[in-house]
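Hey, can you fold this one?
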Amino acid sequence: MLASASLLLIGLVIGLAGSLYYAWLVDPADTQTAAPADLRTDFKEDYILMVSQAYAADGDWALAQARLNQLEDPELTNTVISQLERYLRRGEAADVVRNLAELAKQLGAEGRALALFAPTPAVSATPTAAGTPAVVTATPTLLPTPTASLEPQASATPTNTPPPTPTASPTAVPNYRLLSQQQLCQSYFDEPHIEVVIVDALLQEVPGVEIEVSWENGTDHFFTGFKPEDGPGYADFKMEADVSYTLTVVGGSLHIGGLRTEPCDTGTKFQGWELSFQNTVL
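Sure. Predicted structure:
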């Protein structure tokens, strides 16, 4: 009985020693950080985001491309576009969207979102070098030696020169004009919002327009087009109670101030604001 127990114990010790030998020496586990291609889907999304932010900071496309290749994704362009669309639906920060859109554009992607947030810069005409103007050298002319004259010369009568008439400078016309402004109870929101709709000169909604809202202790920016289900020219901003906001469309519009929340007639919610602007430039 004792001998059997001893043999069993010896067998367990030998098995444990063999397992440790195999795990530590023959086939040790790789304890280093996992390669990007082995990451979970949500971690791969974070990895792509970090690559886009690094590329926005240093502009090194070769390095960014090398980092993206580590994902070993044959559908990398579509993956980045899908991530960009998700960020737009979630209303991520504008700089995050711009960086990701720029990354997708460098991968050769096309689409409406890229046209808005990573537009191709317009090619400006190279100025033609103008000819070197001829330098005119003045040749001094010898004046005749003046002779004394006994007759006094009449002095010139001074004339009063009228001052130049001031010309009125034209007043700058803002690019955006306010079409409508109304305060209403927004039953579809849990909290009051400033809702903005931007249209062009032909009354078509315009996405990608930057809007600035400011209050006593802060300023924020938001863009149209982040909620395509509400329209390409739609944007909104959550309001706080007892705060007065001022709103303007970046690029030229009047400052609309005094935007505050007030209780609805029911008393259970607060009223928000709806404003619409039109770009008057064709």
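Confidence is low (pLDDT under 50) at residues 122-152. Let me know if you want another pass with a different chain boundary.
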